[in-house]
Amino acid sequence: MKNLISALLLFFICSAQTCSSQDEPNVVSNEYESCCGTQPVEFTSGKAYAYVPNVFTPNGDNINDVFMPYVNEDVLEVRAFTILSAKGDTIVFQRPFFNYKDINEYAWKGVRSDGSRYTGLFKYKMQILNSERVLKIVEGQACVIQCGTDAKVFKSKEGCFYPVQAAKNGTLDKSISIAEKDCF
Fold first, then answer.
1. Are 117 and 123 in contact (CB under 8 A)?
2. How confident is the prediction along the chain (184 residues), in pLDDT tens digits per residue?
3. How deeply is 127 buried, as exposed, middle or buried, from its count of CB atoms within 10 A (0-12, 13-18, 19+)?
4. How buried is residue 81: exposed, middle or buried, by Cβ count under 10 Å (0-12/13-18/19+)?
């Protein structure tokens, strides 16, 4: 009987230690907590349309790698294309105008001016001149997703719209697959 009690006591002690180590919470980053679903992604001014994605993944796979506005033919110009830190106190990237003929130079690739990668929430501002010569300020927030363990939250996150979902007419096409397989 003494051996049985000792064995049971040993079993309970071992079980308690195993359970307590399994119950330790996993550390989850809240870096992406404010991403997706809170800001508009489509803007209009007369007949001019602009779609601005609210997430992108600059991981070098040529899918969703750059952040920029997608516009229709009634947008004559995009001016003062500016990316700011999440607090809005630091300019991270800026172009006086956006040249669609040289996306490589004018689209943001998720990198600060010092060459370091930016992660998480950021703010953007730009001016859009439509074909009626009306200038509209477009601003909002979006997120840079650096692919990795923390990015898995985007598999099920609602309200995320990616660059590949830009329709040719400067609007969002939710029926287009995000095509991002390597990141998540």
1. no
2. 555 445 444 444 444 444 334 444 444 467 898 899 888 999 999 999 999 999 999 999 999 999 999 999 999 999 999 999 999 999 999 999 999 999 999 999 999 989 999 999 999 999 999 999 999 999 999 999 999 888 988 988 999 999 999 999 999 999 999 998 888 8
3. middle
4. buried
